[in-house]
Design a protein that fits this description.
It is a single chain. With about 500 residues, the chain is an all-alpha fold. Helix content is about 75%, strand content about 0%. The chain contains 24 helices and no strands. It is globular and about 65 Å long. The protein starts with a helix and ends with a helix.
């Protein structure tokens, strides 16, 4: 479904933007200095002079990175599915079992926060490939041991490799997309997270009949295949393939101008004589490194990180505890609870795609932070239904599926929109598009702290105050996430309303 939607989105791009321009000729992106050369519109120009661009972008960038991050997600799923079998076979205590999860989440969190240090020293393709290869090795070694302490170490090491995935994929995709199509394509592309989760659960559960160790081997094979595909087929930057990126085209740069030294990702370091607004957008990452402290000081970044912390605590709480809640609180049989809980992921797939399309439509793609706020408000309302309709949900699996899908729709959608197109826009407005992945890693790392805390917080509230208190707490967190978006919203309004102010930012 996601592949078909991505293909249709690519093929319909010309029609979509022709209609947008015809109905609202003043809606051109503030990032494009010459609307007539907007690479998102049909006719002569960007697409005509680079006829192979869209084909290369689709197969060698969007599809490869989609498969790559889906493989990352698959590689982190086995233990949550086979936990009970592992505990029975090797005598692992529940406390040890929880330490396996905690080790993964902790290293994953710090790996993302300090991702910028790695990005400034290695090419993005190599980071993605090494991350996938490392995850494959960790999953294979995990099934070969029966020591709880070795398992904790290996799953923590897997968390380090897994942390390379999202920010690296965002770094690769960013220069290939024009701002006016970014929300739509990133929304579809971001479905890899929910699809990977579903595929991971299905693959491990299917192979579990052969034994939990065989499930891990199956995951290893899948991840290894995608690793090879990434190393040999991924194209990091348009310049690497002989193309001009949309941002470079909007600044008047053409193929003959692409000469001189290149960065590790293949982007040309353009000379000052070219008609660029600011050379930093094309600068060598080694010459313009950005530290974690500098990331934390960027406008709007700490506020977005705080909001994402709340969002990820909410989403991971539901991902981890929804089946338990349905079984122990609403009285569903275990098998039924598993199927009903999967509606949360299915809603997330649709929500990821819809959020990108909505953000492109809303204010002509210039108000993605506001689009995130709208999704958060709707998500808070859908969470409220869990408490209000609890009695009816207990007697209707269909109603429970609908409400769970609604929650997944809004929170997965907001997640994909915020860590994708929204942060890509922010990086370009700050004139540091090469660091979009580093910003995404920092925000994602802070959010992962929420994922670590959700376990003890949810368990404490449910045990001492009941499950209604859990959902009210999640609603309060939604409110905090919305409030944290105030300054980013004002920053977005100020910069987007006057392109000249991006220089001041």
């Amino acid at each position: 479904y996601s592949f078909c939607t991505l293909l249709v989105s690519e093929m319909s791009g010309k029609v979509y933007h022709r209609h947008a321009t015809a109905t609202n000729p003043m809606s051109e992106s503030s990032f494009c200095s010459n609307p007539e050369e907007d690479p998102s519109t049909a006719g002569k120009g960007f697409r005509e002079q680079q006829p192979e661009y869209e084909k290369v972008r689709f197969w060698r960038v969007l599809v490869v990175t989609w498969l790559g991050y889906a493989a990352y997600v698959i590689a982190r799923k086995p233990f949550s599915v086979v936990r009970v079998e592992v505990e029975k076979e090797i005598g692992m205590t529940p406390m040890m079992s929880s330490m396996v999860d905690t080790s993964f989440l902790t290293t994953y969190c710090f790996g993302q926060i300090f991702y910028s240090l790695l990005k400034s020293r290695c090419s993005t393709k190599h980071i993605i490939g090494v991350g996938l290869a490392g995850a494959a090795v960790c999953t294979f070694l995990f099934q070969s041991t029966s020591s709880p302490y070795t398992m904790i170490f290996l799953w923590g090491l897997n968390g380090v490799f897994e942390s390379f995935g999202w920010p690296s994929c965002v770094s690769v995709v960013t220069p290939w997309l024009h701002p006016k199509e970014r929300g739509r394509l990133m929304g579809v592309w971001g479905s890899c997270q929910a699809v990977g989760s579903l595929l991971g659960n299905w693959l491990v559960a299917t192979l579990l009949i052969l034994g939990w160790r065989q499930s891990y081997i199956g995951v290893t094979v899948v991840v290894a295949v995608v690793t090879v595909l990434t190393f040999f087929y991924l194209l990091e930057h348009p310049n690497r393939g002989g193309f001009v990126s949309p941002l470079q085209w909007a600044k008047g740069i053409r193929a003959p101008d692409l000469t001189g030294d290149v960065t590790m990702d293949g982007e040309y370091i353009l000379s000052e004589g070219l008609p660029t607004e600011k050379n930093e957008s094309s600068a060598d990452p080694e010459a313009h490194q950005i530290s974690t402290v500098q990331l934390a000081r960027l406008p709007a970044v700490p506020d977005l990180a705080m909001s994402y912390f709340c969002q990820k605590l909410i989403r991971y709480s539901l991902l981890s505890w929804l089946p338990y809640y349905l079984t122990n609180e609403l009285g569903f049989p275990t098998i039924v609870a598993g199927y009903v809980a999967s509606s949360f992921d299915f809603g997330g797939i649709v929500g990821s795609i819809a959020s990108g399309m909505f953000s492109d439509w809303y204010k002509s793609g210039t108000r993605r932070v506001q689009a995130c706020v709208i999704y958060l408000k709707c998500g808070a309302g859908s969470l409220l239904l869990f408490s209000i309709l609890k009695g009816w949900m207990a007697s209707s699996a269909t109603l429970t599926c609908i409400i769970s899908a609604m929650v997944g729709f809004f929170f997965f959608g907001c997640d994909t929109l915020m860590t994708g197109a929204t942060l890509q826009d922010l990086a370009e407005r700050l004139e540091i598009p090469a660091h979009a992945g580093s910003i995404s890693g920092f925000v994602g790392g802070i959010g992962s702290i929420g994922a670590i805390l959700q376990g003890p917080v949810t368990a404490y509230l449910a045990t001492n105050y009941g499950w209604s208190s859990v959902f009210y707490f999640l609603i309060v967190l939604s409110g905090i996430a919305i409030v944290a978006m105030y300054r980013p919203t004002e920053f977005e309004k100020r910069v987007a309303s006057s392109p000249a102010k991006s220089e001041e930012a």
